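1st attempt posting a full record on here, be nice pls
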Amino acid sequence: MRRRTAIGLLLLAALALLGVKRPPDLGNVTEVRHWSYENYTRVVIEVDRPVTTEVTRLSANARAGRPERLYLDLPEIWVGKSFSDGFPIGDGLLQGIRLGQNTLRTSRVVIDLERYDSHRLLFLSHPDRVVIDVYGARKRGGRPGQAGDGPATRGGSLPAGLRPVQTVVIDPGHGGKDPGAIGVGNLREKDVTLRVARNLGKRLAARGLRVVYTRTDDRTLSLEARTAAAESVDGDVFISVHANAAPRRSVHGVETYYLDHNHDRHAANLAARENGIPRGQVNVLQHTLAKLHMEEISPHSRRLAHAVQKQIVSGLPKGKRPQDLGVKKGPFYVLFLSNMPAILVEVGFLTNRTEAKRLRDGRYLDSLAGQIASGVQHYASEKTASLAQRSAR
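the predicted structure (as C-alpha cells):
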C-alpha cells in the first residue's frame, strides 16, 4: 500500500510538471470540521457529491516517524492543494488531519492518532459529507471540548441503555437560518421547539435530573454539532423537539418517533422534511441505518417513546388533549447519530388553526413540557427498577 501511494504521488508530480490539469468531472472537498470531546473526536469531511469509502487502520511506523493512523480514500474527488496545510488537533486523541491528492482521481484523508479504541463511519447528505467518529481515552494534556461544549462525565462507563437516567439532552429542532415548518399566522417551528425545550428543561431539573441543551437561543446548528454535543456530555436520554405540518389543515395531533431501520412507510415524508433531504433519499438513509448496531439502544428508545406519548395524550386537561397519533418508527438523522436512547416528539401541527393557537400559548407549552417530563420520569423510574432487579440476580 505504501509503495502504491508513493507511485501515485510521483505520478502526480510528473503530471504537474507536464502541465496536466485536474480532470473537469471530479467533485471537490469543500470543508473540513472537527469537534473534540472527552472520549471521542468527530471529523466531518464535506464534499459536493455523494461518495462511498471505508476506513483503514495503519500501525505506527517508528522508523519512518509516523504515528498510528486511519485513512480513507475519496474516489472521484479532487482536493488538490486546498487543504495542504492540514488541520493540527492535538486533543490527546488525534494529532491532526491531513488531506492530499493520492491519485489523479482520488483524494486521501489521513487521521494521525495519539490514542485509539474504535471508530465509526457514517455518510450524510444535503450537503454530502463523511463523518468519522474516533473513540478512545485521551492522553493527559489533551484539550477536549470547544467553546459552548458541555462538560463530559462518566467517560468509559456502561452504554447509555444499561445505566440509570441522570442526564437528559434536549434538542430544540431547527433554529437560526432554518425556521423549520411555517404554520398559521407565520408561526415558526424553531420558536415553538425552543420554548417547549426550555420549559421541559426546567421541569426535568426540578425532578433532580441534569439537563443539557443543544441550543438555548435562536442559532443555526448543524446536525453533527447537535449530536456531538449530546455525546460529549455522556447523556442517558436524547429528546429532539419538533412541530409538525401538513398540506391538509384539518390534520392535527401529537406523535413520537424512535429510531428503527424498518421505519413506518408514512414516516418517510416527515423524515425527509426533518432530515432536510428529498423524499427519494429516505430509502438511502434506511440502508445506512440497517448497517448500524441498534439492537441494544432501540428497545430503550421504544419504551421511552411510549412513556412520553402516553403521558402527553392522557395528562393534559381534557379540553386541550391532542389527538393520539401514536408511537412510530422513523429514519431521522438526529436520532441515529446519537448513541443513547433517543426520541423525536412532534408536539402538534402548526398548520392546524386550533393547534397553532395552543402552540402560541405559554401556559399550554408549559403544561405540554410538564407531561413530556413526566413521561421521561416514568421511563427513568422503570429503568432504575429493572436495573436493580438485574443486579440482584
